[in-house]
Amino acid sequence: MKKIYLILFTLISLLLLTLAVPREGKFVFEYKEGTPWKYAPLIADFEFPIIKSEKSIQMEKDSVLRNFQPFFTKSMTTSSQQIKAFVADCKARRIQVPERYINYVIKQLALVYNTGIMSPSQMSELVSHRYQNVHIVEGQDAVTQSTSAIYTTRTAYETIMGADSAGYLHDVLALCNINNYLTPNLTFDKAKTQTAREEALNSVITSSGMVVTGQRVIDMGEIVTPQLKLVLDSYVQESARRNETNTNLWRQMPGQALLIFIILSIFPLFLLTFQPKYIENVRTLALFYGLICIFPFLSYIMVRQHWFSVYLVPYAMVPLFVRIFFDSRTATMAMLTSLLLTSIGLTGSFEFFVIESIVGFVTVYALREMTERAQILRIALFVVIVGFLAQFAYDMAANTSISDLDHSRYVYLVASGVALLFAYPVMYLIERIFGYTSSVTLIELSNINHPLLRRMSKEAQGTFNHSMQVGNLAAEVANKIGASAQLVRTGALFHDIGKMLNPAFFTENQSGVNPHDSLTDRDDMAKEEQSAQIIISHVTQGLQLAEKNNLPQSIRDFISTHHGRSKTGYFYIQWQNNHPGETPRDELFTYPGPNPFTREQAILMMCDAVEASSRSLKEYTEETISALVNKIIDGQVQAGYFQECPITFRDVQDAKRVLIDSLKTVYHTRIAYPELNKDKQNGLGIHWPHLLGGNRHQHHSKKS
């Protein structure tokens, strides 16, 4: 069933990455004006025009628009209509001026209408666009007219009134009401103007030459000059255009999908072969595939949209997080898989893979064990320094001079190192979303000034001392069998926090008075059953305290599993002795569990039982300690408490040896000091307490 999730995550990742991977393939380059070309010589495998720069094309278009002439249509009837109206008003005696004035006005009206009259708003628009000339269309003919020669109603009136001021008096002309016969006869032709404008703009030649098939575009190490940049830009544009219309697109996509699938398959094969325990957890798989795929996906988008450089992406976060929450080998494999996936969408992927792999290996090495959050700052500094050195070495190997170095690449490396500092808040999110606990969080939790631990040290001091001792024993065992010592130590400190609510009912907190003795049988429950329920409740109450204080799930699991599905043996046997012939209600004496399902939880279960039982030994010798450890742990194994966790028989044997040696050290035998004869003692004039310099605690332990 778990392998189904592995296949599902692989297929989802394959789909997303295939859709996002750039289609430009080998035609995606990273270059910048003034920097050397870092790739192999580029040979044009198709013919393409050299596209002018956008600035140059825009300048030519602006020049065309400055000489552009909009179109206006001249009315063929407006002039005759207005002149007829003027003559009619004169005949009707509505205008009473001398005949020669009438003839003058008729002549001037004909002249201004022949030139053309437009509205003041249209004239303002011509002036604002700085059109020097316009096309005037009359019937089938079109003439070019200077904008300054065209009239508005106001300038036409002023022209008629002042055309012959010496021969015609202004006051008499005013009686003609000339304004009444002036109306625009030029109308803006929007359709013709738009068509002509588009034709003019389309006439601008956007190319400045051609590159033929087989022509060398640029050599490796050659500086990208402004002209070469135009050629390279044109090459990329033509490649993209051909890919958009290429009938082989559906052949390219399956090829990319197959390549992505092959690379993606590396990681699950690694897990199946070397780390099968990770496949059992769906959240673990989700975290792995999320970290592996998010950076290639982001890189594909950046390449397709031409956003900055992929060197800006902090790829070192992949091995960083996998190392923090898992192990170095898995971190290395996750890093390599992610970088290989990213390389599919890049040109010059070898350089990218070399630089980022070096940075990733440094990250894994620098984070052998994370014990404080300040390590992220040091790792970011290492990443920047090593990235700088690796990039500089690669540039020198490519015979690039100091003056020709791509300085932006180094700026991006610094920026990616700074971005690595955001790993701290991201790590917190991962802990919350996926339920993992980093070693830094474990160290912070194991601080005895933690509110729960400080409270336990006051309210249940015996339980606190027991938890500290169990933590030390469990850490020794974990170190021996290769488990997480920090995790099991922290779990041990919190595994009995539920005892704080009823501390006096647990022997380690009692001082002569046992409240279990005051319990009496009830109708529904015998006193032994009541005692068992009180003892068992420290697990459920501990879980409630852990949830209330936001302890990580990994720590809560220690609380629920440190007794597994075992029974409160003391009260269970006591009940059977006091109720012979009756059948006990097993559920009242059984812990809720579950049984341990990790090696660390199994270690805690063993150490907790051994440490508690060791306090009841009457004498502490190698034989008694060994017998106790073997009896307890063998009993747990036979009861099947470790069937659900990946602990081996060898691990169990190693745990026994460590516990026996540790308990022998804790409960060591002391030297019995010899007694002096009274006469010799008095003769020497000494007092026994000062015989050995006051060191009354000198002792030794037997070597096992």
Automatic annotation (TrEMBL):
Source organism, top-level taxon: Bacteria
Alphabetical list of SUPFAM superfamilies matching this protein: HD-domain/PDEase-like (SSF109604)
Lineage of origin: Bacteria, Pseudomonadati, Bacteroidota, Bacteroidia, Bacteroidales
Keywords: Membrane, Transmembrane, Transmembrane helix
SMART domains hit by this protein: HDc (SM00471)
Transmembrane segments: 253-272, 284-302, 308-326, 338-367, 379-398, 410-430
All copies of domain HD, residue ranges: 463-564
Protein name, per record: HD domain-containing protein
InterPro entries (alphabetical): HD/PDEase_dom, HD_domain, HDIG_dom, Metal-dep_PHydrolase_7TM_extra, Metal-dep_PHydrolase_7TM_intra, PgpH_phosphodiesterase
Coiled coil feature spans: none
